[in-house]
């Protein structure tokens, strides 16, 4: 049994990629790739990506995590990168292997000063991942996410799209809306970022979604332009909507989008999503992952996405306290701030509780 912790750079990156190559093809995913995690190190320099690895006689267990400092303390916590995370394995680890991995993970967390771990399991891998999680891990159902199976004929993909969205896409084409692919130049990424932030402000998105100016550049530069695509819907020579995809292995991810609210009647986003499905199918990908909505199944964003497939998967998160005394102390301090501000602590299931903004 041998444990190690890898970074996203140098020889560690090579070793990380070797481990991914040992996974069955269906388990290889961009969210576990060191270059994807590198995006968030570049965007948020205080965060550090690590791959926690334990080799056993029955295979290798590993889990990528982002290690983040807890503000104004010497503590850290661990989370999956934006998107998905969770444990993976090669071979067939037994119960002792799983226990040994949990112990190695816990020891590294203690050495790091990590207080808690939060993770979103990959919807297509969640059942297997749950079996690999440490004893005491809590699982929470979050929402449904939408996927489209691109292994089907294009005619079947078209038939699965809600009739209203098919008509809206055809109406957009008839009105002269056309979809073009970006050259991913610095100028186009800057302009996209500006429109994206405008959309976040329009919908009242939390500060988390207001990514820094370098974020989309980091996506292109860390992953490579071959793993990033930006499409625009244009009408009358103006961009009315855009969508930013990332893709690797078998899957395209509808990463982020934005639109001009004054041009909504032209159905630019509808046409973008349809043409993205057609493009991804032509490129030979197996899955198109659209994600979920902002809240629940009544969310307009979710209803829009599910109209393009009808196929959904459940999304689960995990939560685990790694240092109970530190967690309780940090949570107590936040609750005290809330009491001073409003007279009572907030009632919430947010985890980790001390990260809830007052």
UniProtKB/TrEMBL annotation:
Protein name as annotated: GNAT family N-acetyltransferase
Keywords, ordered alphabetically: Transferase
Organism: Roseobacter ponti
InterPro entries, sorted: Acyl_CoA_acyltransferase, BioF2-like_GNAT_dom, PG_Glycine_Bridge_Synth
SUPFAM superfamilies: Acyl-CoA N-acyltransferases (Nat) (SSF55729)
Top-level division of the source organism's lineage: Bacteria
UniProt keyword annotation of Transferase present: yes
Record-linked Gene3D superfamilies: 3.40.630.30
Domain (BioF2-like acetyltransferase): residue spans on this chain: 166-295
């Amino acid at each position: 049994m041998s444990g190690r912790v890898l970074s996203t750079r140098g020889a560690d990156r090579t070793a990380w990629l070797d481990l991914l190559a040992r996974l069955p093809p269906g388990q290889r995913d961009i969210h576990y790739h060191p270059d994807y995690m590198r995006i968030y190190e570049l965007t948020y320099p205080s965060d550090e990506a690590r791959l926690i690895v334990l080799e056993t006689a029955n295979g290798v267990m590993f889990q990528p995590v982002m290690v983040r400092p807890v503000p104004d303390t010497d503590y850290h916590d661990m989370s999956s990168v934006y998107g998905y995370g969770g444990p993976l394995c090669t071979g067939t680890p037994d119960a002792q292997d799983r226990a040994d991995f949990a112990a190695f993970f816990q020891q590294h967390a203690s050495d790091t000063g990590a207080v808690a771990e939060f993770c979103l399991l990959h919807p297509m891998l969640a059942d297997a991942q749950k079996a690999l999680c440490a004893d005491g891990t809590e699982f929470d159902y979050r929402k449904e996410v939408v996927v489209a199976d691109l292994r089907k004929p294009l005619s079947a993909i078209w038939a699965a799209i809600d009739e209203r969205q098919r008509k809206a896409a055809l109406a957009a084409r008839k009105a002269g809306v056309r979809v073009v692919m970006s050259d991913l130049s610095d100028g186009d990424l800057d302009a996209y970022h500006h429109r994206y932030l405008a959309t976040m402000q329009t919908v009242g998105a939390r500060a988390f979604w207001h990514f820094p100016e370098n974020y989309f550049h980091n996506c292109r530069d860390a992953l490579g332009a071959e793993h990033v695509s930006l499409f625009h819907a244009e009408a009358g020579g103006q961009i009315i909507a855009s969508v930013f995809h990332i893709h690797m292995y078998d899957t395209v991810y509808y990463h982020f989008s934005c639109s001009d609210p004054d041009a909504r009647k032209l159905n630019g986003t509808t046409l973008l999503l349809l043409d993205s499905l057609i493009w991804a199918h032509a490129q030979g990908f197996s899955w198109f992952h659209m994600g979920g909505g902002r809240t629940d199944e009544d969310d307009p964003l979710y209803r829009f996405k599910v109209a393009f497939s009808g196929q959904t998967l459940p999304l689960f998160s995990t939560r685990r306290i790694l240092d109970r005394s530190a967690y309780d102390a940090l949570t107590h301090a936040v609750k005290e701030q809330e009491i001073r501000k409003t007279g009572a602590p907030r009632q919430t299931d947010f985890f980790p509780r001390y990260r809830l903004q007052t």
